[in-house]
Design a protein that fits this description.
This protein is of the alpha/beta class. The protein contains 13 helices and 14 strands. The chain starts with a helix and ends with a helix. The model has no long low-confidence stretch (mean pLDDT 97). Bound molecules: pyridoxal-5'-phosphate (PLP).
Length: 432
């Protein structure tokens, strides 16, 4: 059994100078409490107490090649010998952009920022400029970053959500501008009838529909068959810009993202996380007609650190590594093996649980056997507390996954890691 004494001490010390002891609210929590790490290598991460964990958190998704992947770190080291930030152009950004055009169906032109939250803002701005309309449709349970105009109805308390047919936009934090709520129409995910109805009534006010093509931030719930196709068609019919938020699905479900996986091409899409193997980059990709608004300077997109030497070198090296098709074959095979193994263990122990997702990323829910297809059904039928306790126990057995239930696989994970994880899961489950 592991000890967490040093992490606990460091957390207490950190809290004296760093708000909450963490640099992102996502890293805070009571069960399990935040840990302090010293090193990551391959599929493993090591904490200050000398514990090692098979890591399925993977930096919340970006580490698709695992911790410290040699080709990426070498490319970054080499690039940094040439400087770190030019506030000017250089060839690697052309190489990456040319590559993205060949990989991503909607990518006729691209632009870069540093984080997912920022680049979502660029997408919304382009959509508003292009359509001359103000309102955005977003779905309950979908996360598009922490800014005021999108941190709405992500994980709202069920007693605040309003009627199913017309959800109340629920702010996600204190301090959020009230005005940010007025331009957002919130709808339930995976319900075409309500979307059709809303779009038909408000078409000339709606600039964009933004969605996670797989609802990775809530249960990793897949779109119903034909859902994305019909959303695509509706947007086209009504001159609404369709934005896929592929910050998680991009470079994870395949090189062309979820749009390639499902064969549905949006007008704009945003990427981040796995795109540079753990270095901070994000990307807006879109149809030329829309992206021309940025190209001509009519829509402002700026940023001091955009496309710096380090992230471009990391992205170029990561894309080259991912182009070896064996990475995805590996992620799907291993991920599905782990999903099936976990399900079997739960079944054997008589514990009701549900695994959802594609394999390269998936979600474990301690559910009650009722169907889960959107935010409300997820919130109602998934025992979040049990999931957190399981995550806490599994840490004691050397396995780390995201306490809200998400697991990410990397090219560095092995069959042996999966074997050990399943043994650990069985032991942790006995203590749950
Ligand atoms: C789907 C999605 N969009 C946007 C974001 C925001 O990205 P970032 O945390 O890089 O700002 C995230 C982050 O998890 C995300 O999952």
């Amino acid at each position: 059994m592991s000890t967490r004494a040093e992490s606990q001490k460091m957390l207490e010390r950190a809290c004296q100078s760093l708000a909450g002891g963490v640099s992102s609210n996502v890293r805070a929590g009571k069960i399990p409490p935040p840990l302090f790490f010293v090193r990551g290598h391959g599929s493993r991460i090591y904490d200050v107490d000398g514990n090692s964990y098979i890591d399925y958190v993977l930096g919340q998704g970006p580490l698709i090649l695992g911790h410290s992947p040699a080709p990426v770190l070498e490319a970054v080291r080499e690039a940094l010998d040439q400087g770190q930030l030019y506030a000017g152009q250089f060839e690697t950004e052309i190489l990456v952009s040319e590559k993205l055009k060949t990989l991503i169906p909607c990518a006729e032109l691209v632009r870069y920022s540093n984080s997912g939250s920022e680049i979502v803002q660029a997408a919304l701005r382009v959509a508003r400029a292009y359509t001359g309309r103000e309102k955005i449709i977003k779905f309950e349970g979908h996360y598009h970053g922490w800014f005021d105009n999108v941190l709405i109805s992500v994980h709202p308390p069920l007693d605040s959500v309003g009627p199913y047919e017309a959800p109340t936009p629920v702010p996600g934090t204190l301090g959020q501008a009230r005005s940010a709520l007025s331009d957002v129409i919130v709808l339930p995910w995976n319900n075409l009838e309500l979307l059709e109805h809303t779009v038909e009534r408000h078409a000339d006010e709606i600039a964009a529909v933004i969605l996670e093509p797989i609802m990775c931030n809530t249960g990793c719930i897949l779109p119903k068959v034909g859902y994305l196709e019909r959303v695509r068609e509706l947007c086209r019919q009504h001159g609404i810009v369709l934005i896929f938020d592929e910050i998680i699905t991009g470079f994870r479900v395949g090189l062309g993202g979820a749009q390639q996986y499902f064969g549905v091409t949006p007008d704009l899409a945003v990427f981040g996380k796995a795109m540079a193997g753990g270095f901070p980059i994000s990307c807006l990709a879109g149809k030329r007609e829309l992206m021309e608004l940025i190209a001509t300077g009519r829509v402002n997109h700026s940023g001091t650190f955009n496309s710096n030497v380090m992230v471009m070198a990391a992205s170029w090296a990561t894309l080259q590594a991912l182009e070896d098709g064996r990475v995805y074959e590996h992620l799907y095979r291993l991920g599905r093996r782990l999903m099936a193994g976990l399900q079997e263990i739960m079944n054997r122990a008589g514990v009701q649980a549900q695994l959802s997702g594609l394999g390269p990323m998936f979600h474990l829910a301690f559910d009650d056997g009722e169907p889960i297809y959107d935010y409300r059904s997820f919130a109602l039928h998934n025992d979040m507390g049990k999931g957190q306790r399981f995550a806490d126990l599994l840490l004691d057995h050397g396995v780390r996954f995201i306490p809200r239930g998400m697991w990410y696989l990397s090219a560095a994970h092995t069959d042996e890691d999966v074997d050990r994880t399943l043994e650990a899961a069985e032991a942790a489950l006995r203590r749950l």
